[in-house]
Queue: 2 jobs
Job 1
Amino acid sequence: WTTDTTPVDKLDELSKTSYPLCMRILHESLKTHHHLKNSGRMQYGLFIKGIGVTMTDALSFWKTEFTKKIDSAKFDKEYAYSIRHTYGKEGKQTNYTPLGCPKIISSSVSAGEYHGCAFKHMDQNSLRQKLFNYGVPAAILYISAINEIADLAREQNYLGACTAYFKFIHKRMPDKLISHPNVYFAESRVILA
Ligand code: SF4
């Protein structure tokens, strides 16, 4: 995905500037709850692997958050294996790649879970509130950015909504329709790095 390494101490900042909405929500939820359920760990863990977080850094990143609620031994016993597995260092040593939008959009999300695609899985009011909280302008020159994005989501044009979100966050269109969270990130870094 990328040959560059991304240090974990940059993730807070990057989550605000260069993450697609799905990953920003997962990062924020992890920081708030100091936990993510399995599907969230998988979706976000593969994403950060794809943006160049090393396995050692990923272990330390997840452990720092989780051990705000559980002890270190429990983390090592119950969670470290699956992180190493994500990096192909356990089990069949499969080198898993980050999930693309179609897979994320088709995932099922239960109460208390934060994975999935925000444009598909959030209800309209929650989506509009989240966009507002994340600084998407309610109006620019009489055009409501929040309306434009939320309307695309309501029409089930999730990739269009994500691309419109990119446009308002970066004040320009990406070079192509967003169809993968890691492509969103890469397009963002080309503009912002
Ligand atoms: Fe994430 Fe893709 Fe949904 Fe955008 S369209 S929020 S990148 S799953």
Job 2
Amino acid sequence: QHKFWETQPVGQFKDVGNSSLPEGPIEQPTPLSEVKQEPYNLPNLYEWTICDINSDEICNEVYVLLTNNYVEDDDNLFRFNYSKEFLRWGLRPPGYFKSWHIGVRVKASKKLVAFITAIPVKMRVRDEVVKMAEVNFLCVHKKLRSKRLAPVMIKEVTRRIHLENIWQAAYTAGVFLPTPVTTCQYWHRTLNPKKLIDVGFSRLGDRMTMSRAIKLYKLPNSTSTPGLRKMELRDVPAVTQLLKDYLSRFVVAPIFDDDEVEHWLLPQENVIESYVVESLESHEITDFFSFYTLPSSILNNQNYSTLKAAYTFYNVSTNTSLLQLIQDALIIAKQNDFDVFNALDIMENEPFVKELKFGRGDGQLYYYLYNYRLRSPLKPSELGLVML
Ligand code: YNC
Ligand code: MG
């Protein structure tokens, strides 16, 4: 069934519902000297490479590989189009390892044909803090699919993570594997109904006309929260504290220090936007919201080539209701010409997606942990982790 995953330290299907198994690591770490020192073997035509994304040329090669071969929706209408600036943001957090940005090239031509990455993260699972890797951007060129290259890439990234004395990982995928920590749903808030219908992202339902859709999704011209402004460098300590308190509510969530908050949340054009609410009286930062920019290529449409999508990231509400904060996020996204605003049903997102006219997406996003067993699966609302 799962020839590769059956051999890995992950929750196995046969153990689902067996709550007598202990929570925590499945395998114990081995001494670093016992970690395999040489890379795994690739088929003979291929070689490993470290992709130095600081280099414009190499960052561009990664960008082109992903643009043409990364994740598509079930109907093959759209493909993620992560920008180069986004990849640099996503792959260079504080303490990142260059050796975890792994490529595969054709020996003869040097063409980049596969990619996988990891970044370090401190993760809390209940009251344990565990150093983990987040694995992402696994991609094999369309012409090299189904040749069992992916398992070799996963083993190689695992080996390099082990070499840094890290033994656990988190990852998400649209495919169902042994065994999800939780199963999430995407929700989509239409901002530009005409375009979304034109490109096949959404359809006019029964008794819905274009003009009624435009009216339904219309938003106020300006935000409503007093004291709302773009996050600045000086806000980092306050935002770190808000996020720390907030994320402590979830069963699984990352722990971010000031440097990480600066990296992950300070606004960068076309990558990440964050807004804080500064109290007009006390000047304290009481709330914030953030969303990242991830366009999708529109495959085979005459009129449009990209869908501009915003994805909600981390939000914290103390004085302002989450509903009002996200309504303001929608307004800002609309002002910035986004076509759609997306959210997963994790954290406290479910009530606002229902209230603010998001529509439920098709397809699931599964969250996984490597070498860490949970007693039982979580509800999406128990998860405090967003992956890119
Ligand atoms: C996937 N997405 O089940 P079995 S998400 C994990 N995540 O193994 P082959 C996957 N495993 O079932 P292909 C996977 N997709 O026989 C497939 N697999 O045990 C498993 N798509 O390998 C699959 N990107 O090479 C099977 O398949 C085995 O040529 C088959 O390559 C797969 O980034 C892929 O969706 C996904 O580029 C590379 O289809 C290819 O099809 C592709 O014959 C489009 O592989 C892009 C796409 C995936 C996005 C992502 C997260 C990846 C997580 C990987 C697991 C990390 C584990 C933790 C490691 C660190 C541990 C520490 C410490
Ligand atoms: Mg393959």
